[in-house]
Amino acid sequence: MDLEQYTDKQIVDGILANNKVVIEYFFLKKCSALFIYILQNIFDGNIDKKELISELYLYMADQDWYKVRQFDYRSKLMTWTSVVAVRFFQKKKRELIENKSSETLNKEMDKIANVTMFIDCKMDVCNALKKMPNERYRKVIEALDLKEVHPESLAEEMKITVDNLYNIHRRALMQLKNVMGRKEEYYG
């Protein structure tokens, strides 16, 4: 069977069985766009992509693939992997940066975490947005995540504070997950 046709379960089973072909496919091909995203958005292009691949591989393979065993199929494998990878590399970056204010870093982490939710399912999200009952929530997700409007300008347009906008955004993401048939949880 062509690896491109593998289901999430087949990929996870192959990884847990230490199938080198599946592992290589997953880290080098399937996660390629994710590594480019992390390289550009977390490390500003100042790190080698091969180093990112090695770091994530070692992290996920540690303790007989303990992290991979935590995947519970409530989302797509790539969505879950995106969240795990972004959090892992954000932590790595925090360890490397000592002088950056935590407030600025937290805002960057929130934006990256929100964007990663849509890496593998942008079409699903667009369809689900149309089904969302709360028009305000739909507007916030479309502006912040799909159109990448600056939170400050959206908050000003909506005549609310940026903190309130982030709270609305969090609730909007939960409603979106419910519309998409996923359990109510938030990775932010």
From TrEMBL:
InterPro entries: RNA_pol_sigma-70_dom (IPR014284), RNA_pol_sigma_r3/r4-like (IPR013324). It comes from the Bacteria. This is Sigma-70 family RNA polymerase sigma factor.
